[in-house]
Amino acid sequence: MRLDPLSDLSIQVALPSSRRGWGVGPKRPDREESRLASVLVIDDSASARSEIRAVLEGSCLFGRILEAVDGLAGLRMLLAETVDAVVCDLEMPGLDGEKLLRAQRSRPDGQDVPFFFLTAQRDPERMARLLRAGASDTIQKPFHPAELIARLETHLRVRRLQAELRDKNAMLERISTTDAVTGMRTRRYAGELLSIEVLRASRYHTPLAVAMCDLDHFKRVNDSFGHPAGDAVLAAVSDVIRRTLRATDAAGRYGGEEFLLVLPGTNIAGAHALAERVRAAIEETGFDVGVEAPYPVTVSIGVAALGDGQSVEALVRAADEALYEAKAAGRNRVVVAGDTQRALDSAVGKTRPAIRARRPR
Ligand code: GH3
Ligand code: MG
Ligand code: MG
Ligand code: MG
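A: This is the predicted complex of the input protein with magnesium ion.
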């Protein structure tokens, strides 16, 4: 059967017609696996291709068998298709198997497709070179079907395990950098991000600010409505914060009901404005605590901008102290850290207070 759009590449697609198998594997691949796995056979000899195809079909290892008539057609197909394995001839006119392998391995996403060389060559040096260039295996022609299938099975198994490992690592990475209650980045992640941003800002002389947010009287939420309701409020507050931030900003859960905002490229006036937006957005939101009426929650925020030569710790401490002042001044407000507040005052000629005083609730 030929497929029209790719017919110039001489692709043939076949579903296994039988489940005879070669009786070599520890287990038959299940239907799902077999449907998904695909293999590309590259050989300039039509009879070799059909011989390999017959063996592959008999193995039930692959749900899709593609063919290419030479190295160049094979490369074009690898660019267009995702395959799980390549069974390749070594000697071919034009682009031979080794050059094809090197071309494939030099592509950013062409590193991990297993390549099997079927070759009449018996030069061990050449075989070693192929393996070093990234071939998974070399198999002598004429090959025994059982050997080819057994080797393919082994590599497919390794490939599947590698994919599982990658997925699990990605999941662990997500879990270790994401807070389970709020979906926010963890304190550790936010701290590491801030360290990088401090280095970047110092090096390129770009502004950087942070905001430390702490929910007001949050203990009351737990005391009145229970811990699960408190958790739900924390998650909802996190949503509000995320929605209010810009794409270049980052937020992390710094403590129980504390959030650290990292604001690259933001000076103190910009950070103050953003923090004020966050404060107002939280104040304007009615939170669901499991009773009919929405519950109001407010936040106090301390803002600080990175000074010359200032360390990460000193920057966070400055924001923390400003937060403490915001609490002491009655909560539900934004306070800019001492040094930067003075700078802001002189910049605006003290014509207006930089911080809008709010009545404590
Ligand atoms: P303040 O305005 O001074 O910040 O008052 P507060 O009650 O928010 O401050 P305090 O530090 O005394 O209490 C913080 C409370 O936050 C204590 C704890 O019950 C609650 N909290 C911390 N982490 C969690 C959490 O993961 N889930 C829930 N439900 N509550 C939390
Ligand atoms: Mg050949
Ligand atoms: Mg707190
Ligand atoms: Mg609090």
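Residues 44-45, 89, 91-92 surround magnesium ion (ligand 2) (CB under 6 Å). The chain has a mean pLDDT of 86.
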